[in-house]
Write a structure and sequence with these properties.
The protein is α/β, with parallel strands linked by helices and 437 residues long. Helices cover 38% and strands 13% of the residues. The strands form four sheets. It has a seven-stranded mixed beta sheet, sandwiched between helices. Strand 14 and strand 15 form a beta hairpin.
Length: 437
């Protein structure tokens, strides 16, 4: 009998194994390779940085290598999955993860390239409406993108970019403060561009409310979904998001530097007058090989493509998307919340122990405690010797992530992490804290 979420949580190996026994997704971890340290599989909690390799990925890529060997250039039309249409075979699966229509999504390019391409179309500053709202602690690529876009259009980034900062003594942004900033800068605001899930704190923003507020003042609104896609449930179409980009090497497990993708809402997708940088692969496929001298964009998001599909990278992504389809995002989201809640419980148990025994609280969770405001990542600040503790965890076979200046990011990914993994992490963290206090 599966344990329900209403059952009291316990910090014990027996309890974690019972939870795993009742997990309908428990066998999916067998479909991934785990790195080894001293010949022992690691406890891997960094799918928010680079996902594990699906065991099927090599076969999927090898199939394309074989078709390349067999067909050469004719593989564009005669491969088992013809390369001419390769991006289209990913569309429905990606759209289901984004809450999008198939015509609103396409896989292409790399993440920051796509962000720039989208900003060219959706950041259209004027002399009076030129500002961009983004997080102060956004990932550097996002910061560099919005700063360089403002400069490219002739504006001083220090004046054109509105940085959202948490309140004094807080780590996460309050939704009401984001909405107030949008209202405050409304007449001068051109676009809002946020990381849907902040890479540092793990906060999942209220995309629907933020998008609605941006539209109310006449601005566009878009998101970098690098830490959201495959992690949290989204409804980009229903929320009227204008544009978004995502990567595939984190939660989507497509390998280092894996192919990126974009979302463009259908109300923009067939607007040929919307400025964009054009490329041959973005031309209407019906006339692409007639080599027209004037660009005629393909329908929907496909009209933003530039170059041929990177088939080998897409093949690895296809292997992972097939796993996602079998698992189902609803089930993955439910397990993600359960795993992360259990991790939070374990961390609180550690704090309770050290407060009682040594009168200090070693772990501060800076990720929102509301499960609806986070994915599977918890970001931790340790009160003492954080980097030494991180190093000890690594030596013990626990792969977590250190982010300067003082944060350990822990991501129990529902496809391949278990409740026993979380319990064991807690035991090793407890021991590391004890040895450094």
């Amino acid at each position: 009998m599966p344990l329900t979420e209403t059952a009291p949580l316990q910090n014990s190996l027996e309890f974690s194994r019972k939870k795993d026994a009742g997990d309908p997704l428990k066998n999916f971890k067998d479909q991934f390779y785990f790195p080894l340290i001293n010949g022992i599989p690691v406890k891997y909690f960094t799918g928010n940085s680079l996902g594990l390799q699906p065991k099927s990925a090599q076969e999927y890529v090898l199939n394309e290598m074989e078709d390349w060997a067999t067909w050469g250039v004719e593989g564009h039309f005669h491969a088992r999955m013809p390369w001419f249409h390769y991006q289209d075979i990913l569309t429905n699966q990606l759209a289901s993860l984004l809450g999008a229509k198939a015509d609103e999504v396409v896989s292409m390019n790399s993440l920051t390239t796509n962000l720039h391409l989208l900003l060219i179309s959706f950041y259209r500053p004027t002399a009076t409406r030129y500002k961009i709202i983004c997080e102060y602690d956004a990932f550097p690529s996002d910061l560099y993108a919005v700063q360089s876009q403002a400069s490219f259009h002739g504006f001083d980034p220090e004046n054109a970019i509105v940085y959202l900062k948490p309140r004094e003594g807080e780590y996460c942004l309050r939704t009401e403060d984001i909405l107030e900033s949008i209202r405050l800068h409304g007449d001068s605001l051109a676009t809002v561009m946020l990381g849907a899930v902040n890479y540092y704190t793990g906060q999942y923003f209220d995309l629907e409310k933020i998008t609605s507020a941006a539209h109310a003042v006449g601005a566009t609104c878009g998101y970098n979904l690098a830490h959201a896609t495959g992690n949290v449930q989204m409804k980009l179409h229903d929320w009227n998001v204008d544009y978004a980009c995502f990567c595939s090497y984190k939660y989507l497990n497509a390998g280092p530097g894996g192919v990126s993708g974009i979302f463009v809402h259908e109300r923009h997708g067939n607007n040929a007058s919307l400025p964009r940088l054009a490329g041959w692969w973005g031309n209407d496929p019906a006339t692409r090989f007639t080599m027209p001298r004037n660009f005629v964009p393909a329908s929907g998001a496909r009209g933003w493509q530039l170059s041929n599909a990177p088939v080998l990278s897409m093949a690895a992504l296809k292997a992972s998307l097939d796993i996602f389809e079998k698992a189902g995002m609803n089930a993955l989201s439910a397990k993600s919340k359960s795993l992360t809640n259990y991790l939070e419980f374990i961390l609180n148990e550690i704090n309770d122990h050290f407060k009682k025994e040594k009168d200090f609280i070693p772990v501060k969770i800076i990720t929102p405690l509301n499960p609806d405001e986070r994915g599977c990542q918890l970001s931790l600040i340790l009160s003492k010797n954080g980097k030494d503790i991180y190093k000890q965890l690594t030596e013990k076979g626990v792969i977590v992530d250190w982010r300067e200046p003082d944060v350990i990011r822990v991501a129990p990914v529902p496809l391949y992490n278990s409740f026993e993994d979380v319990f064991c992490f807690g035991q090793l963290l407890h021991a590391a804290i004890a040895s450094h206090s």
